Amino acid sequence: MYAFHAGGQELPMHDPRMDPAYGVLYLSDPTPGRHTITSTLEYAMFRLWTKVQDAPEPPGIYPKADKYQDSEFNAHMNAAGARFKALLDCAGLCLFGAHVGVDRMGFFEMLNAALGFDLSPDDYMQIGGSVQDLRQWFNIKHGLQPEEVDVNALIDGSVPAEKGPAKGLAYDVYAMRRRYWDAMGWDEHGRPGCDPV
Questions:
Q1: What is the pTM for the complete model shown?
Q2: From the DSSP assignment, how many helices (H) and strands (E) are in the chain?
């Protein structure tokens, strides 16, 4: 396989060998191959843990090699980032604006003020998760099988970079995808837990 795409979508310049979260979401998001999703760096800027109970807080010192691990922490970080990004898109707000952090921009408070709701940040994140579930089910209902989305070996992390800042670092994007699906509440085939009918 020589084409650099995921699910038929050409990949952007954001090399997941520098941030494996991109690789996981390139492969796993209902619109695969898109860079406007979430990443380790964007998650750190979103600062979700300051408002959302189950959003993991990155340690003060986060060794680069830890980003390449198939870990529960990384899976839950990616899942929280994906839920938040879905919510951000539904609100019509800018990804770059969210980089100041939810605690600084008053994101959840703005939603309550605009909508007349009194929902908690956790309630809103559940809505973001439901949006991701619906997006995934839409694909499945139209014949796309999530486990069939594949990427080039240079993207899947099995071939580490030979030079540059990611030299020698490898990761298993397929193992990370399985753990991410679990963190999203999806099964081993990428199917959400409840069928929307």
A1: 0.92
A2: 8, 2
